[in-house]
Amino acid sequence: MEKRVEVNIEGRVRVTSDEQSIEEAKRRAAEVETAAEGATEGLDGTAQKAREVAREVERAFEDMAKSLGQRMRSAVEEAAAGGTGGGVLGKVDLSQANPTALLSRVDRGLVTAGASLAGARTYSEIERIQGRLATLGTYLEAARQAGAPDDRIESLEEALQELTDAVKEHKESLEKEGQKPEAQGPKPPGGEGGGPGGLIGQLLERWGGAGLARMGWLGGALRFLGPAGLALGAGVMGFRMLEGALTRANQEGRNELEIAADLARQYESSENPLTLFRNRDDLLSHTRLLRLGYTARDAERYAAMLDLPGGMRGDVYSLLQFSATTGIGEEQTAQLMHQLGMSGTFTRGQMGQPLETLKLALAEGVRLGVSKSDTLQAILRVTQESAARGVQATQGTLAFNAALQQALAQTGNRLLQGQAGAQAQSGIKSALAAEGDFGLQMLMLDAMGGELPTAEELGLSGATARGYEQLARANPIQALPIALRALAEGRAPEKLAAMVRRLQRNLGGSPQGLSLQAALLQQYGVDNEQLLTILGAGGLEAFVTQAAERSPVFAEGQDLAEDVQGANRFYWQSRQLGALGEEARGLRSLASLELTGNFEAGLRSVHGRFSIGLSRFARGLGDRSLSSDADMSGFAGETPTGAYVPGEAPGRPAGAGALGMLSPEGVAVTLAPGAEYDAATRAQLRARGVDPDALPRRHTGYDFSIGKPGVGGDPIVNPFARATVAKVGKDPKGYGTYVVLDLGDGTQARFAHLQATDLKEGQRLRAGDRIGLEGQTGAATGPHLHMEMIRGGKPVTDPLDWQKLFEQYLGRPQGSTEPKEQRVLVEVRGLENIRVEGVSGPQADRIREGLEMILGAAVPQNHRGA
Predict the structure, then answer these.
(1) For the chain, what is the radius of gyration of the CA atoms?
(2) Which residues, in sequence order, are bridge partners of residue 795?
């Protein structure tokens, strides 16, 4: 139900003549300046600098607006006169224009004209809006001639006609109030409409009108307060501009601090988080990083992925150097190092040693025609299998596995290279360990001369070595499988090679010996051509002997600093320059945060109180539609997790506003665009087999709970006037079951995590048609609807822009009735004297609370009397 709201605010200003208005405006300006000086007392020169910058921006915007206004007035006059030369429109050949661009221009123009109408109070303003609408009609006709879609043309024509009718009604209301069209010619100093005159009046009209337009219908009501309302609007506009400028300047610095602090917590570090990879004196990224083309922020990010406490800095430097000189991605390298660090005995802080071994293995693999990714995956696979069998990776076992992999790859058989080669390698090692076959184990023991290897020969130490020696003395047969598995993994390559040579001599070169070796390999998964190649190349003895001889070479590895493109100075120069540019931007933001952080926090705190007050005021009136400050007040509620909103069918759900058009069962917001996933959500995603790092870092849409929270299965309907189903898909690791609607003009909407949908691609929808059921498919941690508004192929992540785009395409379900009008009176005589009529007691209380917060945030302390 729509409500007609009258707001009557009694203040101290009474406008009786033009001269009195000017004097009163000057007096009020002096009082506001005095209050501002008192509020900023104690701050350093930062606040003063911010005010100076704001004034410069204001003057620049004024000049730009004045120039643009003159050009637009000239264009409208020429359009009305049908002229074609000299003016702005005369330079544009609309017959050659892109129809999509023309429709987009009309779309934006309607939004701007609607906002201007909300604050219009004089004939000249109404006439300017009428001129804009005439120009938009010209654009629309040109788009029709250029072949624009008929449904889109019809939609915009309806919107244009509605706005034209609204302008006409507004103009008639001004006539009833006694206003007449202004005579042509010079205007008196007093300005128009009884407002302040001259430059002050123009500034108030421009800035105040823009500020009030951001407050929606409440701004339109405040517009009738005259100079006081315009002054409030101008204050809101200037406040938002200053807050936005500071937020943009400081955001990167805040993000840097957040990432660094989280990393310090992850590694239980109590030092200044910014100095983990920066100099303590000037906070410049370490020189080692910049030379490699990285910044401290890059290092912090990959350190978080590495997640290996103990020697973290040294390991991160090794990670980045390995990635920069091999071309292997940083994230892949971090995952590899983490797995090696958790399954091996490598010293933390010295993970560069196994990386040097891997670097040499990658180079040798490429020389033999094996890609780096295949080599890396193969080595990682056999290392993980060793850990699964209870044998920790060491520098020696890693080198032996790399050498054995190279020996197999040298045969030229593609089935012995890469992942397939890793499978054969696992079979060979299981055969050498005689896994699960007591008879073969005794044969291997005989090949070792009847004695088990010592703990020292197997590279065991500490409690592990003592346990092995005790077991070997107490029960050698029980210790034998452990010793054979350690030998097969490369713990003692020379002893393993000697054992295989003796075994080969014992078996002899007879057909029976060859058959026994073939049966042994087949038993452990070496098949067909893999087996034939191994036998033809000399059997187990040849491969194990070659691997044992090459192990020391791979253990030494390849220097991480070595780069086949090391002489390409322009490449490294470009990397370093890019890093320096990022570094400069980051340091500027950190410096800005140091100087203005507290001031920005104060501004945002005031903004938050003002926005929450506006939201409470709107909720008191029963309006839960998106507020103009959705980034602070949330969506359909006071916070980004708005309360449950029940709806009624048919038609637009009562009290749910635009949001309620998604479902008749009620809608609540659970997560807003731009939010980061918290630790609990990331843990839940991992539990469902979804890698949270593979998802966008920040949330790309709104999450809604439909109907009863946590249940699912509630219907979701199309809220848009017209839509075409562009895609119906399934994404098990992301969106789950999802639907993409094409709204025209390059805009789309995605509905994700659906339980089910019956829609087909190409199907046309009207407002109220069912899209599907709320579900928990894909990367969803609970039943909900994830909805994205997409412009230019990218999700819109700014809440305010999301809101505007959403409301721009809304429709009304078939069969719904026009809402009845309800009259609500709000009278403000002071912060302690607010009277509300026309609503229930609880609603009246919300309205009073909201207005108290709004006025408390916007009105100086010395202006809060009755």
Answers:
(1) 37
(2) 790
- In the three-class reduction of DSSP (H, G, I as helix; E, B as strand; rest coil), residue 524 is classed as coil
- Of 771, 665, 655, 669, give the one whose Cα is nearest residue 708: 665
Beta bridge partners of 723: 765
Q: How far, in Å, CA of 551 to CA of 411, rounded? A: 18
Of the candidates 841, 812, 836, the one whose C-alpha atom is nearest the C-alpha of residue 823 is 836
The contacts of residue 336 (CB under 8 Å, 6+ apart) are 358, 376, 380
Question: What does the buried/exposed string (b/e) look like for 146-163 if buried means 16 or more CB atoms within 10 Å of the residue's CB?
Answer: bebeeebbebbeebbeeb
Query: Could you please report the per-residue DSSP string of 730-775?
Result: EETTTTEEEEEEEEETTEEEEEEEEEE----TT-EEETT-EEEEEB
Judge residue 806's burial from the number of C-beta atoms within 10 Å of its C-beta, 0-12 exposed, 13-18 middle, 19 or more buried. Answer: buried
Rounded to whole angstroms, the Cα distance separating 313 from 101 reads 52
Nearest to 749 by CA among 779, 715, 786: 786
Residue 663 contacts residue 811 (beta carbons within 8 Å): no
Phi, psi of 488, deg, nearest 5: -65, -30
Cβ–Cβ < 8 Å for 408, 418: no
pLDDT (average), residues 114-143:
78
Distance (Å, whole) CA 242 – CA 576: 34
For residues 678 and 230, give the distance between their C-alpha atoms in angstroms, rounded to a whole number.
Answer: 42
Q: How far apart are CA 556 and CA 358, in angstroms?
A: 10
- First vs last C-alpha separation in the chain: 33
Section 466-475 average pLDDT: 92
Give the mean pLDDT of 575-604: 87
Residue-level pLDDT at 339: 87
Query: Would you place residue 544 in the very low, low, confident or very high pLDDT band (cuts 50, 70, 90)?
Result: very high
Show contacts of 379-387: CB within 8 Å, 24+ apart.
379/405, 379/422, 380/336, 380/339, 381/419, 381/422, 381/426, 382/422, 382/425, 382/426, 382/429, 383/339, 383/340, 383/343, 383/344, 384/339, 384/343, 385/426, 386/343, 386/489, 387/343, 387/344
User: Which of 242, 233, 32, 251 has its CA nearest to residue 698?
Assistant: 251
Fill in the DSSP letter of residue 7.
E
When pLDDT is cut at 50, 70 and 90, the band that residue 190 belongs to is very low
Burial class (CB in 10 A: 0-12, 13-18, 19+), 233: buried
Residue whose pair of structure tokens reads 């060491």 in the numeric block: 394
Q: Is the separation of the CB atoms in 244 and 238 below 8 Å?
A: no
703 bridge partner residues: 671, 786
Q: Which has the higher per-residue pLDDT, 605 or 590?
A: 590
> What three-state secondary structure class fits 825?
strand
Give the contacts of 829 (CB within 8 A, at least 6 positions apart). 10, 835, 866
Better pLDDT: 496 or 188: 496
d(CA 433, CA 484): 5
Quote the distance between the C-alpha of residue 158 and its chain's center.
36
- Find, among 863, 866, 865, the residue nearest to 30 by Cα: 863
Apex 231 CA angle, 227 and 236, nearest 5: 150
Residue 269 corresponds to which tokens in the numbers above? Answer: 């570090």
- Count CA within 13 A, CB hemisphere, residue 185: 2
Q: What would the DSSP string read from start to end of 92-115?
A: --GGGS-HHHHHHHHHHHHHHHHH
The sheet with strand 821-830 has its strands ordered as 2-9, 821-830, 833-837
Q: Let me know the angle formed at the C-alpha of 213 by 210 and 216, rounded to the nearest 5 degrees.
A: 165
